[in-house]
Fold each of these.
Amino acid sequence: SGQKVCYGGLKHSCYKLAYFQDLSRRVGFEEARQACEMDGGALLSLESEAEQQLIENMLQNLTKSGSGISDGDFWIGLWRSGNELATSSPCPSLYKWADGSISPFRNWYTDEPSCGSEACVVMYHQPTANPGLGGPYLYQWNDDRCNMKH
């Protein structure tokens, strides 16, 4: 399930947001990726500041609609495969888009990515959390453990 919104003329012309207030319906990264692919799409690759802004606006509209969205981060299609840890490249450069996009655009929260055992990426959506060093936990990206439920 989810809300599908389409625009003309953009590279990604349709977007589908899936938000589950019911914690038991939230899924890990791989399940989310498969759900998108079964739906004919892919987990979102955000390729520009403009696209990031578009998604932020869509999330703001979703919360305004009175659906009562509370804290709950959203998986995006950025991840790092575990077998690349042995390389000499700095960790942030190891993150790749699951749909094959080579866009260098990133919107990390301050001090992210923390790397280590966290290899899959969420867009923060924690409106009730106290702000951290990088401000409110809203819409910036954070690497998280891939088995976390979002």
Amino acid sequence: RPSSVLPPDLRSAEAELQPPRRPPMAVKVYVVYYSMYGHVGKLAEEIKKGASSVEGVEVKVWQVHEILAEEVLGKMGAPPKTDVPIISPQELAEADGILFGFPTRFGMMASQMKAFFDATGGLWREQSLAGKPAGVFFSTGTQGGGQETTPLTAVTQLTHHGMVFVPVGYTFGAKMFDMEKVQGGSPYGAGTFAGDGSRWPSEMELEHAFHQGKYFAGIAKKLKGSSA
């Protein structure tokens, strides 16, 4: 019989027999980036804020290992690295969704991020990342320097892992059509222009990054919920 028609004493006894409901597990979103001068790192901070604004989502920011020597970085004028923890390839498998950020090098991701992906062979053999949502964000020096080619060529890495690419599309709305100011970003993801290195992400670019984090976290949450 339905519990609603049982006497109160039997209903309470039935409730005691029911197993306790477990609280839903948090959706883990990782923001993994490489930043030489700090521009991508700044976007990563806003993306974390956006993703963290979604209820039930836990966000952790990581950076990938630097492959250049300190002497070389010094000659390039790169500032010291931040205290953001360095991620190992194997730790990617712990995430429910991952956003990757990197600067461009001749229209493609920087070699530091490519080296990190090259080290994920073990995950590929086990298909540990297959089915996980992934997105990208980026920084270029100029307007024609790769705001589309950099993320587009990065999709090959995600594809071989069987990940589900989640572009931001035009969900940022009318602000993506603003022609009054120079702004980075594209339907592929949030982006910024660094120029000669002295230009930092604008308010609009940071808003785009926040939106991407929030949008992506919502998608990751839906995907995990549908597979539960």
